[in-house]
Predict the structure.
Amino acid sequence: MGSFPKQDQVECKEKAEYANVNWDELGFALTKTDYMCIMNFNQDERQFSQGTITRFGNIELCPSSGILNYGQGLFEGLKAYRKEDEGILLFRPEENALRMKIGADRMCMPSPTMEQFLDAVKKTVLANKRWVPPHGRGSLYIRPLLMGTGQNLGVKPASEYTFLVYASPVGNYNKGELNLMVEDKVHRATPGGTGGVKAVTNYSPFYKPLTEAKAEGFSDVLFLDALTGSKIEEGSACNIFILKGNVISTPTADGTILPGITEKASWNLHQVEELAVPIEEVFDAEEVFCTGTAMVVKSVASITYQGKRTEYKMGAETVAQKLHAALTGIQTGVNEDKLGWTMAID
Ligand code: COI
C-alpha cells in the first residue's frame, strides 16, 4: 500500500465523536463513562495480568477484603487533554506510575510495572475517547486504583490485589475563590505515617474539619505539621506555594506531604525553594497559590489562622496565573512541550 504525504493525512483526520455532555457545566464529580480497565495480580506468576477493558460498573468484593477492612489501597489521579486538532495528550503519566510504585511499597502491595500502568491508562482513555472534553472545555480525569481484594480477616497484607483504572470528564475542581482556613487541631499526616503516599486512608480522616470549615464559608483547610503545629504542610487535595519578593517557597515533602506532580512541574517552570515554611510566613506573603492534578494551579484569595485573615494578590498579573497559562498550554498542546512532559495517545 502506498504511503500518503503528511499533509494529506492531516486533512483526512476524522472529526472526533463526542459524548452527549454539557461540557461547560462540568465540575469535579463523576460522570460515568463507558469502560474501565482491570488487572488482577497473579500469585503464582507474581505479576499483574494484562489489562482487560470491561464496561464501567460496580465491582464485586469479598466482605473481608483488605481494602474494605483495613484500607489497604492507593489511588492516583492524572488527566487526558484534547488538543486543538482533537488529538489527545496525557500529562506525565510516568510520574503517577512511579508514585504508585513507591506507595505500593509503603503499603505492602505489589504494583503494576511502568509499562502495565501506562498501558492500562492509555487503554482506558482510548476506550472512553468520546468522553475527553473538547479542547479548552475540561479534561478526562483518570483514576487508577490499587487495592487489596483478597480475603483477610487477620491484620496482614491481602492475598490478592486488583489494579483498576476508570475515568470521568471533569471541569474546575473549585469554583469561586480559594479561601483557606488553617486547621490547628486535626493533622493530615504524622512522621512515619502514610502522608507522603497516596493511600486511600489519607482522606476521610479530615472530612470532619473540612466539612466544618466549609460550613463556615471556607473552601479548604490548610494543614500544619503534627510534630510542632507551627509549619504549613498542604491543603486537603493540593500543595501550597507562597511568594515573597521574587522568592517562591513550598514546604519540603519529607514524608508528611504528598509529592505533587503538578507541584514538581511548577518548580521546573519557575524557580522554587523547598523548605520548612512557618505559619508566620503566610502573614506577609504577597501571593499564595495551590497546585494539584485536579486543581491545576489556583490563586489563594485568603488564609485565616486563629481568626486572623490575610488576603493575597489575585488576578491576571499573579505568578499563579502565569504558571497556570504555561502549564495548561503545555498540557493541551498549545505551548511547545520542550521538556517532553506530554504523551500523545491517539
Ligand atoms: C488529584 O489532584 O488528583 C487529587 O488527588 C485530588 C483528589 C483527592 C481529588
